[in-house]
């Protein structure tokens, strides 16, 4: 991407969008277009078409979505499927209508079949039943990938889809009802330490395994792919390693310096047992993650202690 190119970053206030905005600015991109949800409702096709007509972005990072952890996904499925379908359809279609040079769409590792072989290869998508707790979100995200691929086939659009694993980092959502596991456990342990609580409750059995990618690494990977990847089908973005929720909780406990007990609440859902990504396609493209989990947790904790 030329540093003077008009780059539309949809979702700049989210975890991914915030990291992408910082990274793009640090690399000297001077013409980054952003709009808040109040300024531009991406579920409204007319508003989206007008925005594209007036601003003519050359590149689009589609990082806007309704996202949440396992509880939010299983509590509000209608909003997760509708909002994510509309956002994807409106932004991807407008990018075609107004001649966007390249668009990067973001999927998620949770849209692979629940019991697909591990590590997950890109070709496993749509080969089996989805995880129930986030089926609504997954169907919308799969539709977005299909939109990109069919616009490439029929119209020659250079629209690519990245499939990040579970993300975390500064700017994450720390609301315990809607957040993902890593920020939730960070907050719970910080508060338990501050309030001298004797225990911290961890949802589920602690046995599911998750892969965690630091969000600044993801931003770096997205910009790399925008410049170097133009193929159909999703491309996995991960670290290549995973750990159990129990191991994660013990790591966070150690980093926060919390000395109480960890209690596992089996009444809460475990979700998919594992979703480790195969990142050989990404490695072949020439990119790999840099920030290891303990370092990323320490940076996220430092950010949270200032912004809580
Ligand atoms: O991060 P998480 O909410 O989402 O849950 P998923 C991961 C695992 O951590 C589950 C456990 O087994 C949870 O039961 N867990 C333990 C907790 N304690 C907690 C807690 O306090 N809060 C939360 N949230 N989890 C999401 C999808 O699945 O993955 C989204 O629902 C998205 O759509 C995201 O794709 C990347 O990793 O299970």
Secondary-structure map with pairings?
Layout: E1 7-10, H1 15-26, E2 32-33, H2 45-55, E3 59-62, H3 70-75, H4 77-97, E4 102-106, H5 135-155, E5 159-164, E6 166-168, H6 181-194, E7 199-203, E8 209-210, E9 212-214, H7 215-228, E10 234-237, E11 243-244, H8 245-256, E12 261-265, H9 280-285, H10 293-307
Parallel strand pairs: 1-2, 1-3, 3-4, 4-5, 5-10, 6-9, 7-12
Antiparallel strand pairs: 8-11
Helix pairs in contact: 1-7, 2-4, 4-5, 6-8, 6-10, 8-10
In words, what does this structure look like?
By secondary structure, the chain is an alpha/beta fold. 43% of the residues lie in helices and 15% in strands. It contains ten helices and twelve strands. The chain has helices at residues 15-26, 45-55, 70-75, 77-97, 135-155, 181-194, 215-228, 245-256, 280-285, 293-307; strands spanning 7-10, 32-33, 59-62, 102-106, 159-164, 166-168, 199-203, 209-210, 212-214, 234-237, 243-244, 261-265. The strands form four sheets. It has a six-stranded parallel beta sheet, sandwiched between helices. Helix 1 links the parallel strand 1 and strand 2 (32-33). Helix 1 (15-26) crosses helix 7, helix 2 (45-55) runs parallel beside helix 4 (77-97) and helix 6 (181-194) crosses helix 10. The longest helix is centred in the first third of the chain and has 21 residues, at 77-97. The two termini are 36 Å apart. The model has no long low-confidence stretch (mean pLDDT 97). The structure holds guanosine-5'-diphosphate-beta-L-fucopyranose. Guanosine-5'-diphosphate-beta-L-fucopyranose binds at residues 69-71, 73, 108, 110, 133-134, 137, 166, 179-181, 184-185, 202-204, 208, 210, 245, 268-271. Guanosine-5'-diphosphate-beta-L-fucopyranose is lined by residues 69-71, 73, 108, 110, 133-134, 137, 166, 179-181, 184-185, 202-204, 208, 210, 245, 268-271.
């Amino acid at each position: 991407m030329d540093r003077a190119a008009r780059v539309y970053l949809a979702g700049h206030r989210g975890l991914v969008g915030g990291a992408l905005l910082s990274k793009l600015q640090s690399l000297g991109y001077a013409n980054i277009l952003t709009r808040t949800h109040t300024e531009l409702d991406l579920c409204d096709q007319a508003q989206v078409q007008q925005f594209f007509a007036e601003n003519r972005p050359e590149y689009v990072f589609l990082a806007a979505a309704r996202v949440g952890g396992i509880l939010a996904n299983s509590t509000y499925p209608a909003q997760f499927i509708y909002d994510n379908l509309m956002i994807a359809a409106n932004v991807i279609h407008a990018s075609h209508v107004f001649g966007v040079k390249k668009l990067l769409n973001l999927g998620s590792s949770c849209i692979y079949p629940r019991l697909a072989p591990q590590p997950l290869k890109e070709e496993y998508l749509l080969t089996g039943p989805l995880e129930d707790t986030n089926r609504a979100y997954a169907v919308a995200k799969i539709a977005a990938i299909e939109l990109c691929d069919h616009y490439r086939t029929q119209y020659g659009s250079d629209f690519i889809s990245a499939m990040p694993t579970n993300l975390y980092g500064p700017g994450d959502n720390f609301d315990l009802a809607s957040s993902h596991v890593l920020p939730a456990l960070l907050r719970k342990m910080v508060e338990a330490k501050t309030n001298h609580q004797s225990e911290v409750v961890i949802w589920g059995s602690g046995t599911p395994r998750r892969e965690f990618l630091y969000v600044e690494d993801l931003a770096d990977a997205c910009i790399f792919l925008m410049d170097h990847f133009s193929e159909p089908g999703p491309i996995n973005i991960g670290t290549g390693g995973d750990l159990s929720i129990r191991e994660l909780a013990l790591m966070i406990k150690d980093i926060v310096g919390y000395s109480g007990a960890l209690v596992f609440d089996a009444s809460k859902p475990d979700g998919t047992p594992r979703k480790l990504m195969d990142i050989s396609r990404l490695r072949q493209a020439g990119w790999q993650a840099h920030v290891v989990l303990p370092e990323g947790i320490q940076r996220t904790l430092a950010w949270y202690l200032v912004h809580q």
